[in-house]
Amino acid sequence: MYDVADQVLLRKFQITLNLSLDGVLDVLNSKNMTDAGPLNLIDDDNSDVDDGVDKQTRVNSSYDLPGSMQNRGRPIARTKCLRIAPTGRSWAAATTEGAIEAALGENQPSRALILSLRLNEDNLIKKCIVAVAPVDIKAVVASIPFKYLNRLIQTFAELLENCPHLEFILRWCQVLL
After folding, report:
1. Per the UniProt record, which residue ranges are transmembrane (predicted)?
2. What local confidence, expressed as pLDDT, does residue 62 receive?
3. Taking the domains of the chain in order of start, what are their residue ranges?
4. pLDDT above 90: percentage of residues in the chain
5. What is the mean pLDDT of residues 137-164?
6. What is the pLDDT of residues 78-109, one digit of tens each?
């Protein structure tokens, strides 16, 4: 997600966790990246043949993305289509792994908290916690996957130190136990 006016990347959305796909890395090496895209994908031939995207799926192609391993015929992680709702509050993408949808500002406290835990951004996690209504705490806690509970508990420890909503945070802690 980009802020066009300021030309700043606001948030990244991961389209797959499948490391067997080509182009899926945790850290990218941008030394071969130019303004026009990856250096190896720039067509500098004078031929009329349009290899384009097909060049990436060949077994003998070199590096497709900067910092990625050589493509040995593996499928490539791609977003083929992106559609934004007219309200600008939600979007959907068609990827090689299937459809992904995201909504901003909808009243889905458990989904918002899980997504903020996936993004691992402190301020966003805290904002999602405070936005949950007290009557929804049990349902939200029940929907949190086990792998995010440690991160959630760490956030509550930070909130207990300097949050003015002590009773609210203690209610969360009681439900978590």
Report:
1. none
2. 47
3. 19-74, 109-176
4. 15
5. 90
6. 788 888 877 767 778 888 777 777 766 556 78
Sheet containing strand 90-95, edge to edge, reads 79-84, 90-95, 98-103
Q: CA 30, 31, 33, 39: dihedral to nearest 10 degrees?
A: -140
Question: Which residues make beta-bridge pairs with 90?
Answer: 103
70, 86, 90 from 58: Cα distances, Å: 11, 38, 35
Tokens, residue 131: 């936005």
Q: What is the pLDDT of residue 63?
A: 47
Longest CA span, the chain: 70
What DSSP string runs through 19-44?
Answer: TTSBT--SS--GGGEETTEEGGG---
Contacts 24+ apart (CB under 8 A), 22-27: 22/56, 22/64, 22/65, 22/68, 22/69, 22/71, 22/74, 22/75, 22/76, 22/77, 23/64, 23/65, 23/68, 23/76, 23/77, 23/78, 24/77, 25/65, 25/67, 25/68, 27/67
Query: 10 Å Cβ neighbour count for 41?
Result: 19
Residue-level length of the chain: 177
